[in-house]
Write a structure and sequence with these properties.
single chain, mainly alpha, 2 domains, globular, transferase, transmembrane helix, plasmid, Alginate O-acetylase AlgI, cell membrane
Length: about 450
Amino acid sequence: MVFNSDIFLFAFLPVVFALFWLLREKQARYILLTISGYIFYGYWDWRFCFLMLFSSLVSFGSGLMIQRAQDQKTKRAWMIGTICVDLALLGFFKYYNFFAESLHAVDPAIAPPLLNIILPIGISFYTFHTISYVVDVAAGRVRATSNIFEYLTYVSLFSQLVAGPIVRFRQIEADLERIDKPPQTDQMALGVGFFAVGLIKKVVIADTIARLVDPMLANHGDLSMLGAWVAALGYTFQLYFDFSGYSDMAVGLGYLFGIRIPQNFNAPYKALGIGDFWRRWHISLSSWLRDYLYISLGGNRKGPTRTNVNLVIVMLLGGLWHGANWTFVIWGAYHGILLVIDRALQPWLKRWPPLLYRWGTFLLVIVGWVFFRSESLSMALDWLGKMVGIGTGNGDIPQTLMVLCVLCFVAVNTLPETWDIRFPKTVRWAPVYALSLLLAYLFMNGANSTFLYYQF
């Protein structure tokens, strides 16, 4: 089920919303949100609900055992065991065939057989939820909950289940504990406002760009030099408006149920340097990788060389997290190297004019998105080659796409991020919100396209 589908907008969401606020007891609301989360997830393929439930029960039980353990060695053993189970599930479903195919390319004799594996949507996200929970319990940053439905609500919360943001239990624990409170007018206004802006970003901007960019990239061999750049720029904006749109809708849905989901984007294309970009783009992932991987590897505490190695390792794994393809690995390595260079040249780069520094960062990000979007290394190299004038074709460039790219460039450099908008909270603004949702819905045209990050 997707947020921009009729079944979600006119059936699932109204029913769950009405039942949630009709129920008054905390436990009843936990149970409702848990059931609705599994219905939302199972609408795609009900069989994988059991996989998510298994992962949730393992981490829930482990959290309790860690909480009760009397020594750090036992706590660490439970934590490592749970992480191994979670990563084994993620590794099998997401990466088994990737490594099997890679070994086949090297030596078929040593390669395991390829399997017909369906990748469960959202597994990368809820796996990071469960891992962060047991690590935080073991570190004493959060106390393990003894309420199974409170925990299942956290993992299966439909607003952020399949494409993030990656929410840590401690970030919404207070809201979960107060989930039986009455509705707040300001939160309702914020919820509808965020959801309306996110829906507009997705169906009006991102999907319109996609209908123009996708045919160009399906025939990337015909791209001219200008066409290659326009396609790269178009995808750069498509990805941002698609994923930030989803994140805004997730935040809005959270507010509608009294849960404050953290910010995931902060005007990333205004970044001054690659380090600043990763403090602004997919904030929940970059902060997760920093807190649970980079710092565990030693962070910047073991000298500049080790720091640089840690940065590259983290970004390599971050790239692989996005998908089982060498294009994602190279994209991660590319950003890891850029982070190393960015750190080394900071004293010099800070003397650059801010506008030049921003646009230089933006250009480097665009180049990286070529690997991110490409279906294979050969496609990425062909696309990049055409961007520098090698092997160019004479394919058409949609004028509408060029206009949209200009408008989007102006928008991301001048308009505020959704979190900086002060949504009116009075009832008289309800017709404005309703009209915004209606206009966005009319743009959907029955397409109900999925969000780009569903594949991760």
